[in-house]
Write a structure and sequence with these properties.
Helices cover 28% and strands 34% of the residues. With 261 residues, it is of the alpha+beta class. It folds into 2 domains: 3-93, Orthogonal Bundle (Helix Hairpins), CATH 1.10.287; 99-257, Sandwich (Immunoglobulin-like), CATH 2.60.40. The strands form 5 sheets. Strands 3, 4, 5, 9 and 12 form a 5-stranded mixed beta sheet that branches. Strands 6, 7, 8, 10 and 11 form a 5-stranded antiparallel beta sheet that branches.
Length: 261
């Protein structure tokens, strides 16, 4: 839930609760001293003053019934303020990951080895320290006894951590003979109901809190003999730039680099 929706929700609850107490005050004539007879606006604003513990003194409860309502509303107001403050503080103190994953993963040659690749980017205004990424293949397998099981296979990455994640990171898994992806294809992965689960975690340098991001690649999002389009460049001042317009773009490998994947 974004901040506008959160603040709107708090405001709606505030109005509804005060409206309910205003109707309760109006249920007994003369419950509020100096309030106009059967004036909903006077009763509503008296309720607001009571719940917020403002107490201007112009209007005040005039009956035992009104004092009971005032006591109950004050108690609810105290808990309400504490609850809203806790929610707001939790939202302020909880960092958002704001990690973007490329929509597609590719399998292309890297140093003459078929390699699974996808891209992640840090869209935050600060760095993520001690970032680590883990990629797990989930698929259905059958044991020698014929039992069907959902297995988790960790993929070994060329680099699974970085001391400082600032811009873009291309995650790569060489598909060697020991890889769970060795000899497989998109059709085989679809038959096994497979998926690649990616989890990235790191330390927010501003708040010193751990952030997490998760993404899942289905077989349809994995493209063989394709490569990721380059999105990193430098401006005239030497600053690195990421062109997010092409962040999800992939392209076919040149014919001279294509091989069996």
């Amino acid at each position: 839930m974004g901040w506008p929706a959160f603040l709107l929700g708090i405001g709606v609850i505030f109005v509804l609760v005060n409206g309910a107490f205003a109707l309760a005050y109006l249920a007994q004539p003369g419950a509020i001293v100096h309030a106009r007879p059967q004036s909903f606006s006077d009763a509503f604003f008296f309720s607001v003053q009571t719940m917020a513990t403002i107490g201007y003194g112009i209007m005040y409860p005039g009956t035992f019934y009104a004092n009971l309502l005032m006591s109950l509303e004050t108690l609810i107001g105290l808990f309400g303020v504490a609850f809203a403050t806790g929610l707001a503080f939790a939202r302020f103190s909880r960092p958002r990951a704001r990690i973007r994953f490329s929509k597609a993963a590719v399998v292309s040659l890297y140093h003459d080895v078929p390699t699974l690749m996808f891209r992640v980017a840090n869209q935050r205004g600060n760095q993520i320290l001690e970032a680590r990424v883990q990629v797990t293949l989930l698929r259905n397998e059958h044991s020698p006894e014929g039992q069907r099981m959902r297995r988790f296979r960790d993929l070994v990455l060329l680099r699974d951590s970085t001391p400082s994640f600032s811009y873009s990171w291309t995650v790569m898994h060489p598909i060697t003979g020991n890889s769970p992806l060795s000899g497989t294809s998109r059709a085989a992965l679809e038959e096994e109901d497979a998926e690649l689960v990616v989890i990235l975690a790191g330390l927010d340098e501003t708040l010193s809190q751990t952030i997490h991001a998760r993404h899942v690649y289905k077989p349809a999002a994995i493209h063989w003999r394709h490569r990721l389009r380059d999105v990193l460049s430098k401006d005239t001042h030497g600053h690195y730039l990421i062109d997010y317009r092409h962040f999800d773009d992939i392209e076919l490998e040149p014919p001279e680099t294509q091989g069996e994947a």
